[in-house]
Amino acid sequence: MENSIKAEIREMHPKKIVTYSRNVFIPLTNACRNRCHYCGFRSDNPILMNPDEVRDLLTRAKNASEALFTFGEKPEVVKEIRVSLSNIGYSSFLEYIIDMNRLAIDLGKLPHTNAGILSYSELKKLKPWNASMGLMLEQAIELPCHADSPGKKPEKRTKVIKNAGKLQIPFTTGILVGIGENFEDDLYSIEVIKELHLNYDHIQECIIQNFSPKKGTPMEDFPPPSAERMLKIVREARRILPEDVEVQIPPNLVKDIRPFLKEGAGDIGGISDVTIDHINPEAPWPSIEKIERCLNGEFVLKERLPVYPKYIKRGWYGSMTEDLIKRLSDDRGYKKDRKNTRGNVER
Asked: Number of structural domains, the chain?
């Protein structure tokens, strides 16, 4: 089905299609039980966004159709977060996430939640309120950089991805390259993602993300992977993965996206004109105009929603997002090109 949708687009645009999503990045908390040696997001003095702050971001992001909810894993292990949740009227972090998902939908944004390790029942509770969800596999092997991170055990992460498949949740995953693994490990991790998709048919995109060193972390002097290595992995990912799993490259972490698109990447992820990439704050988002100039007429840039057309056609998205998806999507399942829900002309 996805292939037929793309074939229709190609009839109008013989050049390769590159998709992206306009999003707003909402870091609900930087509390996390993991201590990954490369992470600059986690804090020993964590904060929790209150609903008014979330509302403000959602309201400011007028061009966004995706609300990307990101936070540390199992933040309730931190006492300060439990107290903060209680102070704003929530008995659990899951209850808080669902309420913020609901707020996003009310304000015309489709939630995509990256929640770390979740149980089957937690995923089931979140599903109705999300257009799609995600969890980076990172690597399917154990590495020294994850020695203090119980949530980075490969078997735990693959279990979450499997459970998302059982629940028919459109899912984003991917690998983090250059954190101590070798090239064969990268390929093995991509093979694991392939098998997960072949079993459950729910992985819509695989991110190939390069490690970027952060000051103040144990790996601040660790060298990032070269562009040549990243290009080679993107090429192999496109060869290994089923055709209906898109290969994504983050446009703010590479100098030039064109070589990666030529090697098989077909998506550049979510881009915000309101919020930074809180995971990689040193790397600003390029504007859509800058990306179009970079593409230099070789590719067609097309906006999508956080849930891919294939899964819109199937109706796999969360039930509470259905009306909004129908308003925002065109007849092929992509973001409507010309008019938003209020009838204003969009770029």
From this structure: 1
Q: pLDDT for 29-45, tens place per residue?
A: 999 999 999 999 999 99
Strands 16-29 and 267-271: parallel
Cα–Cα nearest to 197, from 269, 140, 245: 245
Determine the Cα angle at 61 with ends 311 and 255, to 5°. 75
Return the structure tokens found at 258: 């064109």
Closest CA to 279 of 60, 68, 127: 68
| 8 Å CB contact between 238 and 265 | yes
- We report the CATH number of the domain holding residue 194 as 3.20.20.70
| DSSP single-letter state for residue 4 | H
Phi, psi of 299 (to 5 degrees): -135, 160
Buried b (16+ CB within 10 A) or exposed e, 177-186: bbbbbeeebb
3-class SS of residue 117: coil
The reply to whether the predicted model has a pTM over 0.85 is yes
Residue partners of 147: CB distance under 8 A and separation at least 6: 37
DSSP string covering 5-25, please? HHHHHHHH--SEEEEEEEEEE
CB count in 10 Å sphere of residue 149? 19
Q: Which pLDDT score, from 0 to 100, does residue 13 have?
A: 47
pLDDT score for 14 = 52
* CA distance linking residue 136 with residue 139, whole number of Å: 8
E strand or H helix at 60: helix 51-60
Cβ(71)–Cβ(27) below 8 Å: yes
Mean pLDDT of 261-268: 97
9 occurs within a structural domain = no
Residue 343 lies in a domain: no
In angstroms, the CA 118 to CA 121 distance is: 8
342 lies in a domain? Answer: no
- Per-residue pLDDT of 178-199, as tens digits, reads 999 999 999 999 999 999 999 9
Range of the domain at 256: 26-328
Does 21 map to a domain? Answer: no
Helical axes 93-106 vs 79-87, angle rounded to 10°: 50
Sign of CA dihedral 347, 243, 211, 254: negative
